[in-house]
Amino acid sequence: MAGSRKLGRATDHRKAMLRGMVTYLLENGQIETTVTRAKEVRSMAEKMITIAKGISGDNTAADLHNKRQVFAYVTKESVAKKLFDEIAPRYAERNGGYTKIVKVGPRRGDAAEMAIIQLVQE
Predict the structure, then answer these.
(1) What is the DSSP letter of 35?
(2) pLDDT tens, 17-70?
(3) DSSP secondary structure string, 43-98?
(4) Contacts made by residues 24-27, CB under 8 angstroms, sequence distance 24+
(5) Which CATH class is domain 11-119?
(6) What element of type H or E holds 42?
């Protein structure tokens, strides 16, 4: 995460917020948030899906490593299981681009540019 955005948060708060948002995205399929947050969430969500896709069945040590990486990041065990069982197989033939960001205009309170980030339907 060399060129990552700070999002006006301390490091621990930012990491916790992104973990929560990625978990929520994988659980529900879409989130409405600001454009800059959506771009950060996209980065991490796509990494998690790619790691989950890496499970092949013939190399158990690598499979266990991938599972542990996902379980260390995703905050709900049920969502991590859904990632391996439903989401990753859905994108088996796809090389990246698992999410899309749709801009929805400014937020009423502070005019921040809002967007919906969602998992692409195969």
Answers:
(1) H
(2) 999 999 999 999 999 999 999 999 999 999 999 999 887 666 777 789 999 999
(3) HHHHHHHHHHHT--SS-HHHHHHHHHHHHHH-S-HHHHHHIIIIIHHHTTT--S--
(4) 25/99, 25/117, 25/118, 25/119, 26/74, 26/79, 26/82, 26/83, 26/87, 26/119, 27/76, 27/78, 27/79, 27/82
(5) alpha beta
(6) helix 35-53
